[in-house]
């Protein structure tokens, strides 16, 4: 009786459909799906880090612009007593150069503000 049960169990196992580990096509498809998912995640991480980097560059440039404008604003007091005065301020970040020029004459102020992208 035990031999019959054992033989019946063996026959059922032999007739059972192949699983994913036994079927090379299913295993390959599963592996390719995992690799594709990993590539998508890596691309998303790279894009996100580039966005953060660009945001940090913009913030640094904005701080530089504010620093130049504050410096030139505080220097206005010394310009008033002179008949004419020229100032040129340049601030450089990794990719952009910011330039502020002002010519002060009695009764007139001429300013230029340039941003050069390298």
Description:
Keywords: Membrane, Transmembrane, Transmembrane helix. The chain crosses the membrane at residues 27-47. A three-stranded antiparallel β-sheet has the order 1-2-3, with helices on one face. It contains two helices and three strands. The chain has helices at 2-15, 24-80; strands at residues 85-92, 96-105, 108-117. The chain is an alpha+beta fold. A hairpin with a 3-residue loop joins strand 1 and strand 2. It has one domain. The longest helix is centred in the middle third of the chain and has 57 residues, at 24-80.
Rg over C-alpha atoms, rounded to the nearest angstrom: 36 Å
Number of domains: 1
State the share of residues found in helices, binned by percent.
Answer: 55-70%
- How would you classify the quaternary structure? single chain
Class inferred from helices and paired strands: alpha+beta
- Walk across the major sheet and give the strand order: 1-2-3
Largest sheet: 3 strands, antiparallel
Provide mean pLDDT, rounded: 67
Low-confidence stretches: 74-85
Global geometry: rod-shaped
SS summary, helix count: 2
Q: H/E element string?
A: HHEEE
Number of strands: 3
Indicate the proportion of strand residues: 15-25%
| Alpha carbon gap, first and last residue | 88 Å
Transmembrane segments: 27-47
Keywords: Membrane, Transmembrane, Transmembrane helix
Describe the structure in brief.
The chain has 118 residues and is α+β, with helices and mostly antiparallel strands. Helices cover 60% and strands 24% of the residues.
Describe the secondary structure blueprint for this structure.
Blueprint: H1 2-15, H2 24-80, E1 85-92, E2 96-105, E3 108-117
Antiparallel strand pairs: 1-2, 2-3
Transmembrane segments: 27-47
Keywords: Membrane, Transmembrane, Transmembrane helix
């Amino acid at each position: 009786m035990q031999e019959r049960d054992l033989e019946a169990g063996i026959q059922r196992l032999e007739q059972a459909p192949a699983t994913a580990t036994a079927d090379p096509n299913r295993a390959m498809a599963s592996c390719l799906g995992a690799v594709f998912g990993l590539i998508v995640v890596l691309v998303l991480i790279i894009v996100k880090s580039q966005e953060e980097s660009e945001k940090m560059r913009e913030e640094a440039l904005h701080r530089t612009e504010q620093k130049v404008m504050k410096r030139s604003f505080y220097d206005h007091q010394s310009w008033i007593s002179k008949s004419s005065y020229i100032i040129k301020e340049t601030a450089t970040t990794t990719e952009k150069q910011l330039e502020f020029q002002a010519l002060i004459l009695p009764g007139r102020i001429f300013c230029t503000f340039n941003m050069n992208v390298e």
